[in-house]
Write a structure and sequence with these properties.
Layout (H helix, E strand, L loop, with lengths): L7 E5 L7 H11 L3 E6 L2 H13 L6 E4 L5 H15 L4 E4 L18 H23 L6 E7 L11 H22 L3 E8 L13 H11 L8 H12 L10 E4 L8
Parallel strand pairs: 1-2, 1-4, 2-3, 4-5, 5-6, 6-7
The chain binds ligand 0WD.
Catalytic activity: a 2,3-saturated acyl-[ACP] + NAD(+) = a (2E)-enoyl-[ACP] + NADH + H(+)
Pfam families: adh_short_C2
Organism: Oceanobacillus indicireducens
Length: about 260
Amino acid sequence: AGLLKDKNIVVMGVANERSIAWGITKSLHREGANLIFTNRQERSKKKLEKLLEEHDIPSKLMVSLDVSSDESIQEAFQEIKDNVGVIHGLVHSVAFAKREELKGEYADTSRDGYLLAHEISAYSLVAVTKAAKELMTEGGSIITQTYLGAERVIPNYNIMGVAKASLEASVRYLAEDMGKYDIRVNAISAGPIRTLSAKGVSGFNEKANVIVEKAPLRRNVDQDQVGDATLFFLSDLARGVTGEVLHVDSGFHIIG
Ligand code: 0WD
């Protein structure tokens, strides 16, 4: 323990105990990180406070942040700067698409739905990277969450797959920009995990079943496994890695 001792790390996107960001929180706490949380909704904040208390995990700061607003992003990072000063890591674990676009044909995607999915799920990484960079004066590590639907056609994932492709390309461009400040930018591509967001995509059970059937490890991944991989990226162990998309999916992505 202690890989993240004295590191100030911002975690975005804990909605409840099933959130991937909650699995990440537990891993980061175990390795001694000081945690700062951002939530969009008051409801998520309440749930998070309760979870932290139950697990005896201290939070250095909690701020509200809606990635659809530049003002909200600016205010949130200002508040973090005023209270914490320097940060060393940022976990971006947010995405959104309209439920009605996560079924049927991708060709039916509306203009609005297309833009919204990209704004919340991909542009948000660009916007928070820019804001976080100002606080990462000792170098840093930024990590986002993506999915195989960015690389392949996965039934019903539709617009979210296209937004994740944009997110993964952004990881590479941001890695190039941030490298000179000793800030690394990487992504984890997790297998299907039953969360609030996952419920929005039709056919979740089939997706999970096919992993058990076909993935080399023949079992699904969980939030804790993504948490430990995220911990690696945030720690000095990954000091030579940037612009990478690491699959934490029981190896499913290598199977044809
Ligand atoms: O199978 C899965 N669950 C996978 C998820 C497989 C691979 C990747 N992912 C990705 C998701 O696409 C997402 O990027 O992991 C990330 C986290 O997803 P999750 O843990 O499945 O989802 P959930 O528990 O529903 O959390 C999503 C968060 C919520 O957090 P808050 O704290 O705001 O309640 O995204 C948030 C959502 O509310 N979110 C926003 N946060 C800030 N501003 C916004 C917004 N505008 N919209 C949604």
